[in-house]
Amino acid sequence: MANRNKNIEVEIKETTNQSDALTELEVLVKNKVIGTVRQPLDEQVAVSYKTEKEMTAKTIDEGIQMIIAEYNLHDQ
Fold this sequence. Notes:
Blueprint: E1 10-14, E2 22-29, E3 32-40, E4 45-49, E5 54-57, H1 60-74
Antiparallel strand pairs: 1-2, 2-3, 3-4, 4-5
Protein name: DUF2969 domain-containing protein
InterPro entries: DUF2969
């Protein structure tokens, strides 16, 4: 039997490391950080999961999607 879809409130916050040369966002679920997305000016996006695993993405949106997918697979 399939599980029902659950609505999850995801929050995206800028970190204190935010500057003109760096975009850094934290992805939160239930006020817990599940990952971080960093993009230095004109470079690839670095995606860090709470498990300390790191990957790269083409866009910030893709990086956020990757973090949410990882959360849905392993932490829900």
